[in-house]
Write a structure and sequence with these properties.
Low-confidence stretches of chain B: none
Chains: A mainly alpha, B mainly alpha, C mainly alpha
Radius of gyration of chain B: 21 Å
Mean pLDDT of chain C: 88
Number of helices of chain B: 19
Largest sheet of chain C: none
Helix content of chain B: over 70%
Distance between the termini of chain C: 59 Å
Distance between the termini of chain B: 33 Å
Shape of chain C: elongated
Order of helices and strands of chain B: HHEEHHHHHHHHHHHHHHHHH
Number of domains of chain B: 3
Number of strands of chain B: 2
Strand content of chain C: under 5%
Helix content of chain C: over 70%
Oligomer: heterotrimer
CATH class of chain C: Mainly Alpha
Chain lengths: ~300, ~475, ~100
């Protein structure tokens, strides 16, 4: 047990060092992606399977595809060897010393706080009955601290607007069709099970690991697969239904929070008899918005369309 | 009824932004309505705060220690007031400024209400992790706005801004994690009592949180992303960034220092922050004096002026508290006026190199008037708001016997006079050849007069300080 | 658990490596990777902190991690778009 943990921790540290010091940018990116997957594995060991799912899907998977795609778009040789600047050696040594000192203090601090009360966490577990879902994390995200999740949807929307302003699509006509390792027929075959498992993850969030973010990420992953194989491509025409779906989660979340005030007396509270259906509705709408936002962060275009064979 | 006000302040502009996004084309009039309504709500909230206890909204009704609370006290109300006044002015200014460009206009009118909602949310939040989310909202709303000036020109500045902002917020989050590990709650009101004493993680968490906020607030040595971003954004956006977005980080520092971090920080840390502030004042003013582009002069001036707010930390008495917050207000109004006036000059000339300013005094008289009047407040001359703030800081330094901050205040004022008069001298005194060559039209009355109105307000802040300082109140937990 | 948790070391190490990378790397993509290392370290620390409750992991830090991951990934995706734009400024619409 502990041996495996120690090995995982050691590998994480080695990969982090590799990611920072690797001579080639591609090696650094690959180290980062492997690190993300191992991190997900560690989180399974640390009783956080739903977070491991999110990290594997979003942190390592989607981000990995984005990183590699960006690397391909850089001029060859960029970021490989950097021209040394004066005092570089001593500056690096000072930075290294500072960071080692910080690491020691941080590790001691984390060790020191391994035991103690957690009033908010205890309260969350105690009030789980009233929250309308059995899964504690989902209850915190969508009920106890729903306001954070709502503002987070704002972050997603604003980064999407920022990305679309740059118009540097990762996936354009030249890249889409031929240079793919995954044939289109295979993608078509995989699509239904991936979509189903994404929807299942959203649904399962109420009582087991999963939820809007993990499900949304898997749905986005299905979209990215379609884009990579050329079945779906970004288009420069943005249309009203797509924009509506992008804000669906945030809008529904806010409106239910405001409109239910007369019934509950509090903003973002749910009446007892409606809490479960409302949470499921909000969860699905959030998942749709998240999936589309992540997908369009990937394509970098304001619209999506199917490629006609 | 008053409990609804904080919630409305966040969600009215938030929903307006979502609506504007769905609409797909610019609708400036909607934003005028929203910023007007926002001002009315803030005035109602301020009158509720000044007459009694803070206004608190319990989101979701789960109570302490679990739920997120929104809370408006005197400090929050003043920052909301500053935001609301600037929102009205900037929204009016942006109508003509973005009229000719439909795509950027739509993005501006979408992002700006979302940013307004984020700023309101940050000032109202009473939760350490929620503050992290609002900090991210504010920066990730601000960076796309910088890009509106044209991606090719601003991409370097935006990227550097993003990298520093992301690092700052993650360092802050590391501190939040350590705080939660010890206290088991994220509620700012419960934290001072919940934090155990004599641990290693306490001061470490405080240091991480403060460092993260300093990076976000562009305090020297983390200022290097600011001038390019603020100097290259469209004028309306520069005004928002300099007056509100970086100030939000300093606001957070004031709020946390006098609240949850109070048992964790020492007087030495305060002196260190004061020294950083003093260095920022002197270095930023000197850099502002050396710039050759008008908007960079104003941007470096922001680096300097933020330093004054840090002078609160070494002194930590009520006069310093009031001085630092009032400086935030006065600088916010005056700096927005400066950036809008500089924007008018750029709009007319098509460039903002200082040597090109010769001979613009006749066509741009009103904008130059605004620049000069706002400069009075930046220099800290009476009767401006800047003077009141510096006077309070000065009396705090005498009260605490820390005379060295007095010399910094005086030197900073002289340097500010230097860079403001350098601009005005070029514009007024060297107008020998009739009119300067220019590439744009004379800015319309809306653009000229919003800048002037803000500059006049910056002056008037020196005369109406009593009710505002009354709203702010004493330093929290302080004995004056 | 009496000994030193290896994952506490890993969390501290990830944060420190990330900060070091941010300080010494010049290329923006490497800096973005370094920032994500810091983020991963902070998330790992939060998950460790969540294990202190006797009856099951504390859902509050878990929710913080989930929110943090989504924010970090969307901000990183935006940063990557900026890097792509910076690398090839000449083409692409400037609307």
């Amino acid at each position: 047990m502990t041996l495996l943990d120690g090995l995982l921790a050691l590998l994480l540290l080695l990969l982090a060092g590799r990611c920072v010091t690797a001579a080639s940018l591609l090696q650094a990116i690959v180290a980062f992606i492997v690190l993300g997957l191992l991190l997900a594995l560690s989180w399974v060991r640390l009783e956080a399977p739903d977070l491991a799912l999110a990290e594997a899907a979003i942190g390592a998977g989607l981000l990995g595809v984005l990183l590699l795609g960006t690397w391909r778009r850089l001029p060859a040789g960029s970021g490989e060897q950097e021209t040394p600047w004066p005092w570089q050696g001593s500056a690096q040594a000072i930075a290294a010393l500072g960071c080692v000192a910080l690491a020691v203090v941080l590790a001691l601090a984390l060790h020191e706080t391994t035991l103690g009360p957690a009033a908010a966490g205890t309260a969350a577990l105690a009030q789980l009955e009233a929250a309308g879902v059995d899964q504690p994390v989902t209850a915190v995200l969508l009920n106890f601290r729903a306001y954070d999740t709502l503002l987070e949807m704002g972050v997603l929307l604003m980064t999407l607007i920022g990305t679309l302003m740059l118009r540097r699509p990762l996936q354009d006509g030249a890249l889409a069709a031929p240079a793919t390792p995954l044939p289109q027929s295979l993608a078509r075959l995989f699509l239904p099970p991936i979509l189903l498992s994404g929807l299942y993850l959203v649904w399962a969030g109420a009582y087991s690991p999963g939820g809007a973010f993990q499900g949304g990420a898997v749905l986005a992953g299905a979209g990215v697969m379609l884009a990579l194989t050329g079945l779906l491509r970004g288009s420069t025409r943005d249309d009203l239904p797509l924009r509506c779906l992008l804000v669906l989660g945030a809008a529904l979340f806010t409106l239910s929070g405001v409109l239910l005030i007369p019934l509950t007396g509090h903003f973002m509270a749910y009446p007892d008899d409606l809490v479960t259906p409302l949470m499921v509705l909000i969860e699905f709408s959030l998942a749709i918005s998240i999936a589309l936002s992540l997908m369009m962060l990937f394509t970098g275009t304001p619209g999506l369309c199917r490629t006609r064979p | 009824m008053t409990e609804a006000l904080p919630v409305l302040l966040v969600f009215v502009p938030f929903l307006a932004g979502l609506g504007q996004f769905v609409l797909g084309r610019a609708a400036p009039w909607c934003q005028q309505f929203v910023s007007g309504l926002n001002l009315i709500l803030v005035l109602l909230l301020s009158s509720a705060v000044v007459h009694g206890d803070p206004v608190i909204a319990d989101l979701g009704g789960w109570g302490e220690p679990l739920a997120i609370h929104l809370q408006a006290d005197g400090l929050a109300a003043l920052m909301l007031l500053l935001t609301a006044v600037l929102a009205v002015a900037v929204s009016l200014y942006a109508i003509p400024a973005f009229r000719d460009e439909p795509r950027p206009a739509w993005r501006f009118w979408t992002l700006w209400p979302l940013l307004l909602a984020s700023l309101n949310a940050l000032f109202l939040s009473r939760d350490l992790f929620n503050l992290y989310v609002t900090l991210e909202l504010v920066t990730l709303g601000a960076i796309p706005l910088v890009l509106l000036a044209g991606p090719n020109k601003t991409v370097d500045a935006a990227l550097r801004y993003l990298l520093f902002a992301l690092l700052g917020s993650l360092v802050y989050l590391a501190g939040v994690a350590l705080i939660y590990a010890q206290a088991g709650t994220l509620d700012l009101a419960l934290l001072p009592a919940a934090l155990p004493e004599g641990t290693l993680s306490g001061p470490l968490a405080a240091a991480l949180i403060i460092t993260g906020v300093l990076i976000k607030g562009a305090i020297l040595p983390f200022h290097i992303w600011l001038p390019a971003a603020h100097g290259n954004a469209p004028a309306a956006v520069s005004a928002i960034l300099s007056a509100l977005v970086v100030k939000a980080a300093i606001y957070l520092l004031l709020r946390l220092w006098t609240g949850p971090l109070e048992p964790l920080v020492s007087n030495d840390a305060g002196q260190l922050l004061g020294a950083l502030g003093a260095t920022a004042i002197l270095f930023g003013s000197w850099q502002a004096f050396r710039q050759s582009r008008l908007k960079l002069v104003v941007a470096y001036s922001t680096v300097a002026q933020l330093g004054y707010m840090l002078l609160f930390f070494p002194m930590a008495v009520t006069a310093a508290w009031q001085g630092a917050v009032y400086h935030g207000l006065a600088h916010g109004i005056a700096k927005a006026a400066l950036f809008l006036a500089a924007g008018n000059i750029l709009y007319y000339l098509g460039q903002d190199r200082l040597e090109a300013l010769r001979g613009i005094d006749r066509p741009l008289a009103v904008s130059l008037l605004a620049f000069g009047l706002a400069g009075v407040s930046i220099m800290g001359l009476p009767p401006s708001g800047g003077f009141t703030a510096k006077w309070l800081l000065l009396s705090a330094s005498l009260q605490t016997g820390q005379w060295w901050w007095t010399t910094v205040l005086i030197a900073g004022g002289l340097l500010a006079a230097g860079y403001i008069f350098r601009v005005l001298r070029l514009a007024f005194l060297q107008a020998d050849d009739a009119t300067a060559p220019h590439h744009g039209p004379v800015p319309g009355p809306l653009m000229a007069w919003t800048a002037t109105a803000l500059a006049l307000l910056a002056l008037a802040l020196g005369l109406i300080s009593a009710p505002l300082l009354d709203l702010l109140g004493e330093m929290p937990g302080g004995t004056s | 658990m009496t000994g030193f948790d290896p994952f506490a070391l890993a969390a501290a190490g990830l944060i420190a490596f990330g900060l070091y990378g941010f300080c010494v790397c010049g290329h923006p993509l490497r800096r973005l990777l370094a920032i994500n290392l810091v983020g991963n370290g902070v998330f790992l620390a939060l998950i460790l902190i969540a294990r202190r409750l006797p009856d099951g992991p504390d859902p509050v830090p878990h929710a913080m991690v989930l929110t943090g991951i989504v924010i970090a990934v969307s901000a990183t995706a935006f940063g990557l778009a900026l890097i792509r734009r910076q690398a090839r400024p000449e083409d692409g619409g400037n609307d």
